[in-house]
Amino acid sequence: MKLVIINGRVIDPSQNLDGNCTVFVENGVIRDVAKAKRSTNGYEIIDAKGAIVSPGFIDVHTHLREPGFEYREDIASGSKAAVAGGFTTIFCMANTNPVNDNASVTQMIVKKAEEVGLLNIFPVGAVSKGLKGVELAEIGEMVKSGCVAISDDGKPVMSGRLMRHALEYAKTFKIPVVVHEEDLSLAEGGCMNEGRISTELGLKGSPAAAEETMIQRDILLSKLVGHHVHFQHVTTATGIDMIRQAKKQGIPVTCEVTPHHLVLNDEACRGYNTNAKVNPPLRTTKDCQALIKALNDGTVDCLATDHAPHAHDEKNVGMDEANAGLLGMETALPVLLKLVHNKQVSLKRLIYLLTVGPAKIFKLKTGSLKKGWPADMTIFDPNLSNTIDAEKFYSKSRNTPFHGWKLKGKVLHTICGGKVVYA
Amino acid sequence: MSLSVRHLLSVKDLTKKDVDLILKTAENLQEISKRPVKKVPALRGKTIPLCFFEPSTRTRASFEIAAKRLSADPIQISSFGNSLSKGESLLDTVKNLEAMDPDVLVIRHPHSGMPHLMAKEVSCPVINAGDGINEHPTQALLDLMTILQVKKKIQGLHVAIIGDILNSRVARSNIILLTKMGAKVHVAGPASMIPAGVEQYGVQVVNDIREVIPKADVIMMLRIQRERESASLFPSLREYARFFGLNKNNMKEAKKDVVIMHPGPVNRGVEIAPEVADGPHSIILDQVTNGVAVRMALLYLMCGEGERKIKY
Ligand SMILES: [Zn+2]
Is B158 a catalytic residue? Predict the structure, then answer.
């Protein structure tokens, strides 16, 4: 099978490439990225005039809800949502039912993902059995079955001792420990960021310090064990600065931020808007600004959506009772391009954070248009007007605070392994 | 004259005019409670569900008496008995309530914002009778009425609110309403009980209650919620009483004409010593009496006046 993408502006940060190029694909891999005119005879042609051609996007933090919560999402619907958002590789978190804490669950996910066959899905296994934070899960078995990292996502590893052992154990299998940072005793009962707005709304807040104390603890443990900790969805100015300082000292830490923590703050909770209830909570304008700064100075290693589908009934309740989380994959690109249009980040840097950035952290062979690499590509128009309409989502759920937002930018084609998986 | 708002969800939404109207109406209606036959036909035939999804004897009784004195039919509802682990779905509850054809809904809920969410779904006015740790607007109005009866004004008064500000809906509503009406509000209590960013309301925050007692024209003590998470906010009741309770000793520093308030029920010997609660400065029982009057006024203004809007 031969495919060629013509007339596009190719941006590939892994090769420092930005220009009008023709991309040739053969047998699922990149054959060539050529500046000069060359014959396209015998190739199926995609005309990318006016659009950007980039390596396929990678989302290292999603919840596909299968097994156990298929009424919210399953591997098939989540795959469709992912490719519609321009993603060709996603990681799914372990908080399913049963929990992905052993090889059989990992194998089931890998098998289903292959059956659906739209994109690369890598499971993230649990750190502890049942996400209970007491005993280590069967990490080695899961890695052998296809897990690329371990995380008790959503449930912080509260025991410092267990976290230390997890790091030591993961070091043996050369996978990072991925952490959702939140001191539960400080965060307990909080349904939004603690501050001015929570007081105004009369809602219990979770303080920034709940996240920051745990970030600091795990920086120290990373240093102690000498192994890689990846911080998920960092949200606070102080937290991101701690990571910046740790990196300067050579401690092996990396981190991600989400689109929503960059463009929304706790004001979004007004009106008791449960679609703005996420974990960690939306913080303040000051925090958003600090995160944007960190996107640019290299502190942030990648972006991730924390795509978390919830059924209508789980959101159509009060703030205290509502499940935390929002849909991320189908809105990520237009929401992030807002930062580009506002000149807060360059298009090239944004693409870096969606492609080569995450690939580096988890040592994936994707995120680049180098010759011989898998032909995973996203073609998008950064200027096309786009009103977010949750009713049209491929996801089974509808929980987004972005419904009705008028944004610019739309995915036109998603290509995975040389196959057009979304158009 | 009518209110500028359809629902009473938050004291933030009330204009000064609304407040004046409510208090004036309350004063007029108060006379009814002093008659031998305490009943007028003003709201005859009106159905008023009192939806208390959180137990409360006082507020509930106060609303029931208020409704009955105006000849309305209050209906006590505590739940529609759905067994889902998350409690009843909002929509199910609303549908059940709508089916009763209510004229005004009174809602008390353990979670902040629930009356606001329900007001969006129902076709009749909603009164917030206390939601989570958010607000208790009728309490603030009755407190205002009680202060006015004694002090004759609000403008320029120094009001000290002492205790668990963090978990108190009474405190939040009072802070907002009193500031709006021109009082200078001071809040005091251990730092573990002061919510983040409370300064935004223009209140003064101190931790040592002895700093605020001498300045205050009105001292409002808050109930320590032993049953809530407040338990971890202070080490022991004994210690709390010693540092943050109002007693004979620190009352010596207070102004001669200070008045002492408390939303009840009082933990005697904890936030307030018995001799102070029952002493000459206490106007705690006036608050209870005025509670009925204020709630009569609200029911009257919200379901007596104007046409009922019908949703098609
Ligand atoms: Zn998480």
Answer: no
Angle at A66 between CA A256 and CA A99, to 5 degrees: 75
Q: What is this model's ipTM? A: 0.74
Taking only the tens place, the pLDDT of each residue in B217-274 is 999 999 987 765 556 678 778 888 989 999 999 999 999 999 999 999 999 999 999 9
Which of chain B's residues have a Cβ under 8 Å away from the Cβ of A204?
112, 133
Min Cα distance B186 → chain A (Å) is 16
- Contact at CB, B117 and A321, closer than 8 angstroms: no
Residue B31 buriedness (CB in 10 A; 0-12 / 13-18 / 19+): exposed
- Its pTM stands at 0.87
- Residue A328 C-alpha to ligand 1 middle, in angstroms? 13
What is the A237 CA–ligand 1 centroid distance (Å)?
18
In the prediction, which pLDDT does B303 show?
85
Residue holding tokens 């989400």?
A258
- Buried residues in B139-171 as b, exposed as e (16+ CB within 10 A): bbbbbbbbbbbebeebeebbbbbbbbbbbbbbb
Give the Å distance between the CA of A51 and the centre of ligand 1. Answer: 33
Closest partner residue to A195 (CB to CB) among B90, B197, B229 is B197
The structure tokens listed for B108 are 């008390």
For B141-199, how does the pLDDT look when each residue is reduced to its tens digit (9 = 90+)? 999 999 999 999 999 999 999 999 999 999 999 999 999 999 999 999 988 889 989 99
Widest CA span in chain A: 66
Residue A145 contacts residue A111 (beta carbons within 8 Å): no
Closest listed residue to residue B178, CA positions, set B209, B235, B219:
B219
- Residues of chain A contacting residue B112, judged by C-beta atoms under 8 Å apart: 201-204, 272, 318-320
Comparing CB atoms, the residue among B133, B135, B197 nearest residue A204 is B133
Name chain B contacts of A320, Cβ cutoff 8 Å: 110-112, 132
Q: Tell me how far apart the alpha carbons of residues A317 and A299 are, in angstroms, rounded to a whole number.
A: 37
Distance in Å, alpha carbon of B131 to nearest chain A alpha carbon: 9
Please give the share of chain A, as a percent, with pLDDT higher than 90. 94
Q: Is A164 helix (H, G, I), strand (E, B) or coil?
A: helix
**Residue B312 reports pLDDT greater than 80:** no
Size of the A and B interface in Cβ pairs below 8 Å: 71
CB contact under 8 A, A318 and B90: yes
Between CA A301 and CA A290 the distance in angstroms is 15
Q: Give yes or no for a contact between A125 and A139, defined as CB atoms under 8 angstroms apart.
A: yes
Side-chain half-sphere of A104: how many Cα atoms within 13 Å? 3
Determine contact, residues A10/A23, Cβ cutoff 8 Å: yes
Expressed in angstroms and rounded, the spacing between residue B6 Cα and the centre of ligand 1 is 40
Alpha carbon distance A235, A290 (integer Å): 9
- A93: nearest Cα among A69, A117, A116: A69
Residue of A nearest to B195 (CA): A199
What residues in B contact A321, CB-CB < 8 Å?
Answer: 86-87, 111
User: For residue A414, what are its two tokens?
Assistant: 């998603």
For residue A310, the number of C-alpha atoms closer than 13 Å in the C-beta half-sphere is: 22
> d(Cα B184, Cα A191) in Å, to the nearest integer?
31
Element (H, E) at B259: strand B259-261
Q: Which of B86, B133, B229 sits opposite A202 (nearest CB)?
A: B133
Only one residue has tokens 């008045």, namely B259
Q: Which of B172, B197, B229 sits opposite A202 (nearest CB)?
A: B172
Q: What residues contact residue B154 under an 8 Å CB cut-off, 6+ apart? A: B144, B147, B148, B178, B181, B182, B183
Q: Phi and psi for A58 in degrees, rounded to 5?
A: -120, 130
